[in-house]
């Protein structure tokens, strides 16, 4: 990633436009990062508006606190977005939030810092935790996990067809040489993959898979999406930017299922299904245009989906 694209929010205008920001509204940015989307929301909020921001990354949290010191409309909470409902309840806004924005996955700031262990192109400690102060690092997990578990993670979360070969190579290497460096892991994966895609580094899928597993990203997303149904006010908007097919599939399915009538009971098809649709899908899928991708390559795989809570 080029320096020009560092910390640059993806689909900035499209995502914030989708929230239809009201001057006096309450909004929640569940993935503050370095605050690009939050700052755009604040530009459109009035003096009486409120913005809650969440992030579990300590550096993102520090950046959010710095913003809050300058802007009294901002309230900062260090938490993963799976804590969204708890925090909204604590501050008394659950069911009153006019818009939730989620920018899923690793941020440019995390990728660009080799100390965080997300990059397969720079040497750094093999960490990969969104919150380095909590949980198990990638290095620790790779040193203890059974071969079949490593293969399953790389196959399931990375959709990597050479997962078994890669897992076998990792386990073989760790016997004599602990895997503690990002470039070390990238080289092991590269040697294990028989054919290389000229447009993609051979370690891309494996690093992505291990990162998703270490941070429980899909579980976090699934929990957060359900919580949004309770947190949002009627007509409140949910805007989700995802970069990975598994994440986008989860968001698409959630919005689709919540916008449909419940299915009839197969044991009693004559009965009217209980319940009603909770969401309305808004517009079509949005992807970055050529100009944004040229300026910020990370935007290439970004997908924005939007839904609105029904009364």
Folded structure, characterized:
By secondary structure, the chain is of the alpha/beta class. It contains 13 helices and eight strands. The protein has helices at residues 12-18, 36-44, 58-70, 84-90, 108-112, 138-144, 147-158, 163-174, 182-192, 204-214, 217-231, 245-258, 290-295, and strands at 26-29, 50-55, 74-78, 97-103, 232-242, 279-281, 286-287, 303-309. Strands 1, 2, 3, 4, 5, 6, 7 and 8 form an eight-stranded mixed beta sheet that branches. Helix 1 (12-18) packs across helix 2 (36-44) and helix 8 (163-174) crosses helix 9 (182-192). The radius of gyration is 21 Å and the shape is globular. The chain starts with 11 loop residues before the first helix and ends with a strand.
Order of helices and strands: HEHEHEHEHHHHHHHEHEEHE
State which percent range the strand residues make up: 5-15%
Helix content: 40-55%
Q: What is the radius of gyration?
A: 21 Å
Unreliable residue stretches: 1-6
- Class of secondary structure makeup: alpha/beta
* Number of separate helices: 13
Shape, per Cα inertia axes: globular
- Tell me the major beta sheet: 8 strands, mixed
Mean pLDDT: 92
Distance between the termini: 43 Å
Number of strands: 8
């Amino acid at each position: 990633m080029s320096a020009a694209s560092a910390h640059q929010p993806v689909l900035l205008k499209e995502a914030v436009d989708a929230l239809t920001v009201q001057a006096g509204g309450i909004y929640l940015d569940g993935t503050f990062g370095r605050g690009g989307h939050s700052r755009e929301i604040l530009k459109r909020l009035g003096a009486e508006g409120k913005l809650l921001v969440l992030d579990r990354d300590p550096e993102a949290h520090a950046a959010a606190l710095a913003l809050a010191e300058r802007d009294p409309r901002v309230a900062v909470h260090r938490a993963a977005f799976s804590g969204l409902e708890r925090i909204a309840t604590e501050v008394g806004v659950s069911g009153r939030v006019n818009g939730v924005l989620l920018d899923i996955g690793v941020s440019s700031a995390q990728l660009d810092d080799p100390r965080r262990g997300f990059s397969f192109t720079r040497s750094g400690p093999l960490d990969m935790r969104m919150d380095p102060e909590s949980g198990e690092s990638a290095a620790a997990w790779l040193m203890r996990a059974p071969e079949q578990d490593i293969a399953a993670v790389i196959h399931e979360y990375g959709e990597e067809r050479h997962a078994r070969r890669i897992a076998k190579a990792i386990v073989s290497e760790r016997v004599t040489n602990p895997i503690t460096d990002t470039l070390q892991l990238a080289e092991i994966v590269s040697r294990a993959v028989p054919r290389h895609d000229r447009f993609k580094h051979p370690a891309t899928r494996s690093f992505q898979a291990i990162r998703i597993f270490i941070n429980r990203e899909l579980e976090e997303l699934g929990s957060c999406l359900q919580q949004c149904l309770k947190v949002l006010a009627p007509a409140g908007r949910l805007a989700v930017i995802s970069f990975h097919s598994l994440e986008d599939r989860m968001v698409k399915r959630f919005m689709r299922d919540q916008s449909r009538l419940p299915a009839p009971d197969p044991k009693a098809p004559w009965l009217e299904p209980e319940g009603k649709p909770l969401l309305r899908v808004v517009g079509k899928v949005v992807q970055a245009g050529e100009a944004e991708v040229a300026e910020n390559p990370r935007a290439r795989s970004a997908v924005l989906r939007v839904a609105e809570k029904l009364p």
